[in-house]
Amino acid sequence: MKWEPVECKAGDMVRIRLGGLYHYGIFVSEDEVIQFGLPPTAENRAVEGEVKVIATDVDTFACGCIVETACLDRSEQKRRLSNDETVRRARARIGETGYNIIHNNCEHFVNECVFGKARCTQEEDVRKRWLNRPICDVYLALVPENTSDEGIFPEKRKRDINGIKCEALRNSARYAWKLLSHAAQRSFGTDIRDAGIKKKLSGRWVSDKFFFSISCENGMAAVAISNAEVNLSLDEPLSGGVTKTLLNPRVTVSVSGKHCSTVKYFWAEGSSEISSTLMGGKLFE
């Protein structure tokens, strides 16, 4: 879809630019542009609950800005409703409320009138930037005694852990994997069962939803989880990484990877139902 300042016809999507935002409407005639609320200028400022679908003349819609018309490509032309149906739908919604700047705004409105499905490219851009933001979280915890293997997924990982002969190491491995499950849910909103966990030929366990690294030392378990390659150590500084010293218990925590400069630390507690809280700087040396 391209936007050009060309002549409009009834049923066209139109928009104006106000700073870094766009305001959208359905053009019917010079005297009728249907839109979800007035353009968001200082003069037209209103609270969300007062915003309605309205019809104004094109000058009121434009607010002195250049009006651009959506020039649809072939696939969009095939998917769009007829111009008459677009106008009918837009007019039928005049007086409708429920405006929400993120989830139900003027762009959602025009896309629903033209394509039959609400959509907002501005919202999608914000969501994309949010999902692509640097994530590097480290979860630290004291390993409790007698951690069960209940809830460890996948089964192959459970068998691997249960095959560890040393009871202390086996217990730490169980808890660290449960800590990973908690980290996946908290940092990525992903259930460990949906994380695409698999074992590579090298013996390393990986996920297709995130990157992670696990370390256990002297009764401590730690998990680093990120949307880029990450490495974690509880005993020595990693080259090119960020290293901090936890005061109580006194442990060296080192993280390396693309996003290690944005690392956040969480203290976790609990054996079956793990909870975690963001750690403050006072807990580190």
Summarize the helices and strands and which ones pair or pack.
Elements: E1 2-4, E2 12-18, E3 21-29, E4 32-36, E5 53-56, H1 58-62, E6 68-71, H2 74-79, H3 83-92, H4 106-115, H5 121-131, E7 136-142, H6 155-162, H7 167-188, E8 198-199, E9 205-206, E10 211-217, E11 220-226, E12 230-233, E13 242-246, E14 251-257, E15 264-269, E16 275-278
Parallel strand pairs: 7-15
Antiparallel strand pairs: 1-6, 2-3, 2-6, 3-4, 4-5, 7-11, 8-9, 10-11, 12-14, 13-14, 15-16
Helix pairs in contact: 3-4
Q: Helical residue percent?
A: 25-40%
Unreliable spans: none
Largest sheet: 6 strands, antiparallel
Distance between the termini: 54 Å
Q: Which structural class fits the helix and strand makeup?
A: alpha+beta
| Multimerization status | single chain
- What is the element string, with H for helices and E for strands? EEEEEHEHHHHEHHEEEEEEEEE
Mean pLDDT: 92
The general outline is elongated
Q: Helical element count?
A: 7
Strand order of the largest sheet: 1-6-2-3-4-5
Task: Please report the total strand number as a whole number.
Answer: 16
- In angstroms, what is the radius of gyration? 27 Å
Tell me what portion of residues adopts beta-strand conformation: 25-35%
